[in-house]
Amino acid sequence: AGATAGRGAGAAAVNSSPATGGAAKNALPHARVKTIMKSAPESMAIGADAVFAVSRATEYFIAYLVKAAHESNAAANSNSIDYSNLSTTVSADPSLKFLKDVVPKKILARDYLAALQS
After folding, report:
1. Alpha carbon distance 28, 51 (integer Å)
2. How many of the other CB atoms lie within 10 Å of CB of 72?
3. C-alpha dihedral, 62 to 57 to 19 to 42, nearest 10°
4. Is the dihedral of CA 90, 92, 96, 97 positive or negative?
5. What is the per-residue pLDDT across 99-118, written as a single tens digit (0 to 9) for each?
6. Which of 17, 77, 97, 118 has its CA at 20 to 30 Å from residue 50's CA atom?
7. Model confidence pTM above 0.70
8. DSSP string, 21-87
């Protein structure tokens, strides 16, 4: 109940939940995740297993998003990802459609104002 799975840059996480008696180590702090979960108006009592599951799911989602952005930037032979890579990935991937308002493509203020006037 504590197998270690390797992650990029040498970081490690323990793949066990609080219910199995294992240490629950995630990249995201559980206290912060629990605070965010409690901020939902319909939130009820939040158990340690729920916080662990949401933390792990969030980590997997972030890994998916970063991998997709990196793959879309592979043609540029760059090992870095910037905002434009993320916004391009969000706009191109139908499964990330829900993020279009959160990670929009950058637009210059003058272009935005011109679009408003026309």
Report:
1. 10
2. 16
3. 120
4. positive
5. 999 998 888 899 889 988 88
6. 97
7. no
8. T-----SS-HHHHHHHHHTSTT-----HHHHHHHHHHHHHHHHHHHHHHHHHTGGGT-S---HHHHH
